[in-house]
Amino acid sequence: MRPILMKGHERPLTFLKYNRDGDLLFSCAKDHTPTVWFADNGERLGTYRGHNGAVWCCDVSRDSSRLITGSADQTAMLWDVQTGTQLHTFTFDSPARSVDFSVGDKLAVITTDPFMGLTSAIHVKRISKDPSEHVCLFCLCADILVVEIVPEISESVLVLKGPQGRINRAVWGPLNKTIISAGEDAVIRIWDAETGKILKESDKEIGHKKGITSLQKSVDGSHFITGSLDKSAKLWDIRTLTLIKNYTTERPVNAVTMSPLLNHVVLGGGQDASAVTTTDHRAGKFEAKFYDKILTEEIGGVKGHFGPINALAFNPDGKSFASGGEDGYVRLHHFDQDYFNIKI
Amino acid sequence: MSEVVSMEEIRAISDRLGVDLTQIDLDSIHLPPGDDLGIPSDDEDLLEEDALEEDQGFGNILVVDNLPVVPKEKYEKLEGVVRKIYSQLGVIKEGGLYMPVDPETQKTLGYCFIEYNTPQEAELSKEKTHGYKLDRSHIFAVNMFEDIEKFLKVPDEWAPPEIKPYVPGVRLFTSSVFFEMLLKWLTDEKARDQYVIRSGGDTEVLWNDARQMKPELVYKRPYWTESFVQWSPMGTYLATVHRQGAAIWGGATTFNRLMRYAHPQVKLIDFSPGERYLVTYSSHEPSNPRDTHRVVLNIFDVRTGKVMRDFKGSADEFAVGGTGGVTGVSWPVFRWSGGKEDKYFARIGKNVISVYETETFSLIDKKSIKVENVMDFSWSPTDPILSLFVPECGNQPARVSLVQIPSKEELRQKNLFSVSDCKMYWQSNGDYLAVKVDRYTKTKKSTYTGFELFRIKERDIPIEVLELDNKNDKIIAFAWEPKGHRFAVIHGDNPRPDVSFYSMRSGTNTGRVSKLTTLKGKQANALYWSPGGRFIILAGMKGFNGQLEFFDVDELDTMASAEHFMATDVEWDPTGRYVATAVTSVHEMENGFNIWSFNGKLLYRILKDHFFQFLWRPRPPSFLSKEKEEEIAKNLKKYSKKYEAEDQDVSLLLSEQDREKRKKLKEEWEAWINEWKLLHEEEKMEREKLRDGEASDEEEEYQAKEVEVEEILKVDEEVIPFEESQQ
Lengths: 344, 727
What we know:
The complex is a heterodimer.
Chain A: E1 4-7, E2 13-18, E3 24-29, E4 35-38, E5 44-47, E6 55-60, E7 66-71, E8 75-80, E9 86-91, E10 96-101, E11 107-112, E12 121-126, H1 134-141, E13 145-149, H2 156-161, E14 167-172, E15 178-183, E16 188-192, E17 198-201, E18 212-217, E19 223-228, E20 232-237, E21 243-248, E22 253-258, E23 264-269, E24 288-292, E25 298-302, E26 309-314, E27 320-325, E28 329-334, H3 337-340
Antiparallel strand pairs in A: 1-28, 2-3, 3-4, 4-5, 6-7, 7-8, 8-9, 10-11, 11-12, 12-13, 14-15, 15-16, 16-17, 18-19, 19-20, 20-21, 22-23, 23-24, 24-25, 26-27, 27-28
Chain B: H1 7-17, H2 42-56, E1 61-65, H3 72-87, E2 92-98, E3 112-116, H4 119-129, E4 133-135, E5 138-139, E6 141-144, H5 145-153, H6 175-182, E7 193-199, E8 202-209, E9 214-222, E10 229-231, E11 238-241, E12 245-250, E13 256-262, E14 268-271, E15 277-284, E16 294-301, E17 307-314, H7 315-318, E18 335-336, E19 344-349, E20 352-357, E21 362-363, E22 369-370, E23 376-379, E24 385-390, E25 398-404, E26 409-416, E27 419-426, E28 432-440, E29 447-455, E30 463-467, E31 475-480, E32 486-491, E33 498-503, E34 514-519, E35 526-529, E36 535-540, E37 547-552, E38 557-563, E39 569-572, E40 578-583, E41 592-597, E42 602-607, E43 611-616, H8 626-634, H9 636-682, H10 684-690
């Protein structure tokens, strides 16, 4: 089917997220207003106004009532999805890069960038669930810091190995017991969510060679995929951090996602926006590439963006996906019937 | 440091001890070796100074002999003359000119020393002035100061050289070893070809396994070369280039170093077509920045590693004629005559062509061929025939002439008028020579192009003039069909030029050139004929983004059109079965190469970052006799059946393997998923707890239920009149 072009952002897209029911699509961009769309027809439903900087990431609660966004204005905000009101603001000393709700939506992991001499950090915040008295409760509870993992001040051994540069993504592991982080130093780390210790680190030999740009868990949370500037994406076991699959492409990978329905992996990227030549749009290879998850073979590609792809998300029903590009567009693709009959 | 003891004190002590100082032999007292008891020796200071002198060496000092012997009055005049000669060739050190004088007669001794700043300058001067005739009776004999000592050691009697015992090994090139070791790769059972690629720091030699649609590694070595690699023209050796010199590699199944050729800072190398000789080139910064670069060329015998001849000089001397090249030198400086005998090589100089022969490595007839204003020359690929181009000069028209070597006899000459430029293209068998001539129009403002076609093998070498249908078309590319009679031309103006094919003999008309066809509006700017002829790739490089058209010239039909985006290189394998297209690191992105079949089917694609070189290993000419070749051609069907069957077996096996592999992968995945599901199930309770008892996960997956809801909207009562019809 023809993709639906959703023009609502004025700046490059940074992140896309479907809610669990798959009827809403949340988009973040470098303009300051995260937007929610009808996932079916691409109609804009509303915006969340309040941030004063690029919005890097968002997550929506399981019941689609809460939205959390992380922004370069050094805050993470909690919103009421339906009304668009700000429920709470978490303030940091450096830009918030990634946010993720835990299982049960009672905790959120937020990463902050290295900034003005501060090092990057992973914060875990508690979030109240009660919707009736949210404002007050949030004010009370939200600031209870359960764990704050700052690598430099934990055990001295960790300081050396601690993440260098930005942490681009941090997500919860199974049962909220671990946190998985990945970033510019190309190393994937599994932290103990209670003590803040590093449990596992990806091997330098088999791991990524350049900065990791994106990380996405599978629907059942058994594995996750990372995309990196080294022109590859890798599939990992979430418990043991063993490398399961490797997908190589021709372009730096900015975004990865996995189909919840079929064994397909989608990689998006393209050459660095600053290196885009004026010669030919094909030079950039701004395609969303489909790979067979198990055979790691390329199946096909979806063209369209005029610029690298920064964000990808699959509808939880597996029948459509959205891509957000440096060009400021969100493209919503509903699959034709043929797609579901692909045989290799 | 011990304190200084005065002589008085020593005497006092000796008197006290009753030792007679005069009786003591001081030399008999020995200090323990290596121990100076804290007293530094005065001698050591002297030694150190000497060592400093030694370190500098005398490599920059020349000894000039056979100078006139002059009395004191004429000393200054002679010194002036010598200084004038030698300061032209380099900077003489201050006080670096020393002419010894006989203290008795006050006359000079007939020689002098000259000290330069650098050994290079000294060497150059030596080259230049050795044998310089000052006058009839004074011919300079110039030597390096360092060599004098060497000459003194030469025994007066000749001693027979020691005969080294025979050592079997790789370094020996007996013909049986040669075939067994170095040409073994030709006997590959699958008749595959090899290629070498260089990417990042790694150099790899691979088999092109087209049946398996992938390469197979032969040999890989990181940092094998410091700049580039090159196959010898018949594929026997792979040459690598290092700071110290060049090396060649080869072997039966792997690559061993066979020989090294010392040449510091070598920049370029070139093999003779028969692989007998290797020419190496380097250029060195002059010590005086006003001077031009100094150029050193060595010609080695490939098998023995011996330097057969070296050439040294300034870059200017080697930068005459030709176009392009490195720092003004057009490479190769020495062009070898065709054929595998490597008999002659030539270079162009100012108003001369110097032709050397390899028996003595000296000029033929001891002199160069004098040709005023010669611009360019080229050898016939097969015969010792030179073609020369001399541009217009004054009243003289421009001309192209063919010269037979070694007789230096002019075979044919053609005068040309109002010529702006000329390019010569030999057909690979040496049958034809095409000369592309750019002529000025009458107004001299623009040029147009025509061709002069020489039929070398026919009597009297007939020349034919060919002009394109549209005379004003620009010629973008020209290429002869290898071993054939046809050629292709891209002409016209960008962006969509035309491609025309001509034949030197078509049908009944064998004596005249005729056009076969013109393809209109092709996105092409380069022509790549298959080495076997018949097939050609019309390629659109650079601006055309790597458009490829595979064309069959026999059928005049396009077999396939394809694209290798941004392709920079197209190379046919030596058999004409496969084509490689590559994007080298001139582009930042897309680096890697594609392998295609001759008819344009993409076989495989390999991506490598920082991809520098792709080179097919050349094959030597066939070892089969003519009769055998004819026999094979006759029974081609019989042979092809066998190979087709093999091909099929392989493809069946391949798909079977592929299926197996996929099955295995799928099974592994299933196993892993199942294991995970088990764990997932175990943790279900915990997850529910985390979600405050809400049934979690997939089990309560959203289901579409159809629910019928009936709603009563309104209840109306209406009285319907009852008609009594039973009246």
